[in-house]
Amino acid sequence: MRLLIIFAFAFIGGYLFTESWATEPPPSNEMEMLLKKIKANTQAVGKATQAAHAVSEAMVEEKVQEKEALVEQVVVAEAKVEQMAIVQEVYVSKMIAVGLDTAMVELPAMMKGPAYDQFLEYQKNGGTEDFEYFRLYIYK
């Protein structure tokens, strides 16, 4: 019986020792390799982030230059519009001096008469000119 108890304790002790050593921690070389991989990955991510910042800064500079060019184009366009308004005023005053009616009638309710009826027929047939042009140059 004593032999059986000693054998049981020896068996349990041996079982416990083999179980505790069955899962060995990874050697330090593998840990160092993993740390090197992590370090390399973080450096690659850092380089990619720097490249992304450089590209975004270049894009911002490009957009600022485009905006400045557009502002300049708007100024030029506004100057052209002002010049065209002056030309239109000169044209209107010359037309009035010659005796032509330059009144701009935009409400269809105010447009009546045979010229307007002919204009509506002209539009139905595919005419593309506005009423003033039709009235002055096409309708006779």
Q: Can you give a write-up of this model?
A:
The protein has 140 residues and is mainly alpha-helical. The protein has a domain at 103-140. 78% of the residues lie in helices and 0% in strands. The protein is built from four helices and no strands. The protein has helices at 2-20, 28-98, 114-124, 131-138. The longest helix has 71 residues, at 28-98. The chain is rod-shaped. The N and C termini lie far apart (137 Å). The mean pLDDT is 79.
Q: What would you say about this model in short?
A:
This protein has 140 residues and is mostly helical. The protein contains four helices and no strands.
Q: From the helix content, strand content and strand pairing, which structural class follows?
A: mainly alpha
Instruction: Tell me the Rg in angstroms.
Output: 46 Å
Report the end-to-end length measured between terminal Cα atoms. 137 Å
Query: Biggest β-sheet, characterized?
Result: none
Whole-number mean pLDDT: 79
Quaternary state of this entry equals single chain
Spell out the key features of this protein:
140 residues; mainly alpha; rod-shaped
SSE layout:
Layout: H1 2-20, H2 28-98, H3 114-124, H4 131-138
